[in-house]
Amino acid sequence: MDTQSTSSPEFTTRWVNLADPRIGALVLSATDEFFASRERMLNPEPAVFIPGKYDTNGKWMDGWETRRKRVPGNDHCIIKLGLPGIIKGIDIDTSHFTGNYPPAASIEAASCDGEPNASTRWVRLTAPVPLRGNAHHYLDIADPHIWSHLRLNIYPDGGIARLRVYGQVACDWALRPQDELYDLIAMENGGLAIACNDAHFGKPANLLTPGRGKDMGDGWETRRRREPGNDWAIIALGHPGIIKKIEVDTAHFKGNFPDKCSIQAAYIQGGTEQSIVAQSMFWPTLLPEQSLNMDTIHTFTDEIQALPAITHIRFNIIPDGGVSRLRLWGKVNLGATHDSM
């Protein structure tokens, strides 16, 4: 458990943020939100500070902030995770809260089909940990259970800018019809963006989120390439499968979409991120180079090369630019499994 580190630990890039509202996460309730609304705490964008901005209750803060508590007890809120999963790490972020952050916080978890109630059994994931102002507090979680809800306790009151809950999405593929096509890299199906050569303007994990991108910031975009070569991202499928349809969506990318794209793929068992990246240059071609247009959903079926079940893809954009969403529709291969990284 690391509450002092200034650098982001591996779990923040390796796993999905289960508390992302883009996949359905929301704050169900809070004991108090007098100074700042509870919904702001899950905003996927970094917290901001706007000097001189006030509302009717006081200074506007980008996060969840309760009033000064004058009675015994502590404040808390209950969060529904966007997708049930195994939690690997948590970031309690107090960015811009300096004289109004809680001295400590703790996390409890529950698993339930509906909303938590008085009979819900809460399990402590972390004991109360000390917090600092204007800082990230990264908490490693070693718990194998699947959770659907969290309770964030703050002691006794104050403000939290952002809460990130990184984990592995839980998918029971054995319960799904085998003859249907699934987007095997969708975040809700366990897809993971595990590596890329550049993410200057947007992370490749955005490619896997539900729906179409809301704007140019809601996608994967690289810097302008000034040297030979092309940009790429490595994505792990949620389950091994055989790909039948591919969609490349350049929504909102008009003067900065890639000229072309291609996809390589392979079936990988085990291996480190570094070894997978090194191997990926030599993977077979799943989708040969295809020309792209601005602000368009490109659908490919006949162009897909016949490959057996795959677990990983290398998405090449040529030479650089931005893509909003990537979909790989296929049939799961229930006789095949692969170890998550």
From TrEMBL:
Q: Where is the Allantoicase domain?
A: 24-169, 190-332
Does the record's keyword annotation contain Hydrolase?
yes
Q: In which pathway does it act?
A: Nitrogen metabolism; (S)-allantoin degradation; (S)-ureidoglycolate from allantoate (aminidohydrolase route): step 1/1
One GO MF term, please? allantoicase activity
Give the EC number(s) under which this enzyme is classified: 3.5.3.4
GO annotation terms (biological process): allantoin catabolic process; purine nucleobase metabolic process
UniProt-listed Pfam families:
Allantoicase
List the coiled-coil residues.
Answer: none
The record's keywords, sorted A to Z, are: Hydrolase, Purine metabolism
Q: Where is the signal peptide?
A: none
Q: Which reaction does it catalyse?
A: allantoate + H2O = (S)-ureidoglycolate + urea
Q: InterPro entries this protein is in? A: Allantoicase, Allantoicase_dom, Galactose-bd-like_sf
Similarity comment: family membership:
Belongs to the allantoicase family.
Q: What is this protein called?
A: Probable allantoicase
The organism that produces this protein has a lineage beginning with:
Bacteria, Pseudomonadati, Pseudomonadota, Betaproteobacteria, Nitrosomonadales
Tell me what gene encodes this.
Answer: alc1
